[in-house]
Amino acid sequence: MYMNLVFQEIENIINDELNKINQKIKGTAYLEILKFKLLERLNLYNNINDLNFNGKDSHKFQQLNIEKEIYADLKLYTLPKVTLNKKLEYDTLILCVTGLVKIDLNESITKKLFNFFISTNNGICLTKGENFNLNIDKNSLIVEIYQIDNETDIENKSENTI
């Protein structure tokens, strides 16, 4: 299967699941729900050797609405990649469709270092403002989803109440 078809199928799955989740859920809770829904449907691509690398190794798309903005970045890493001291600008969901990802999270409140290994068909939600190091193995297909809440007020609006 060609990578551009895989990317398009994954985009369709993400858009479908985004439309099913209640838009009033905010922050990482929304991303956690999305994570479990996506992991159920993304386990189709666990054998990276069956994929044909036709030169395309990344795909980006976005979904915008009144409550939130969702940006997704699908990447195939044919070589290992290390990112050091990255600070999250948005609430982020990282899914490992195939391969292995190591995350060293510098927790901002307690200043402790936490190490996470994310294997195939697993993911993690990270809150904005966290510092982390990212180590991605070769032949890994990674989905990164960034969420921006446009409206952070969780109270009912006066026109919605009785």
Tally of alpha and pi helices: 2
Helix vs. strand class: alpha+beta
What is the assigned CATH homologous superfamily?
Jelly Rolls
| CATH architecture assignment | Sandwich
Which class in CATH terms?
Answer: Mainly Beta
**Do you know the CATH topology?**
Jelly Rolls
* Main beta sheet: 5 strands, antiparallel
Gap between N and C termini: 54 Å
Instruction: Give the beta-strand count.
Output: 9
Shape: globular
Average pLDDT over all residues: 82
Question: What value does the Rg take, in angstroms?
Answer: 17 Å
Helix content: 10-25%
Write the layout of secondary structure elements.
Blueprint: H1 3-20, H2 27-41, E1 58-64, E2 68-77, E3 81-87, E4 91-98, E5 101-106, E6 113-118, E7 122-126, E8 131-136, E9 140-149
Antiparallel strand pairs: 1-2, 2-9, 3-8, 4-7, 4-9, 5-6, 5-8
Can you tell me about this structure?
The protein is α+β, with helices and mostly antiparallel strands and 162 residues long. It has a single domain (3-151), classed as Jelly Rolls (Sandwich). 20% of the residues lie in helices and 40% in strands. The protein has helices at 3-20, 27-41; strands at 58-64, 68-77, 81-87, 91-98, 101-106, 113-118, 122-126, 131-136, 140-149. The strands form two sheets. A five-stranded antiparallel sheet has the order 1-2-9-4-7, covered by helices on one side. Strands 3-8-5-6 form a four-stranded antiparallel sheet, with no helix packed on it. Helix 1 (3-20) crosses helix 2 (27-41). The protein is globular and about 35 Å long. 23% of the residues are buried. The mean pLDDT is 82.
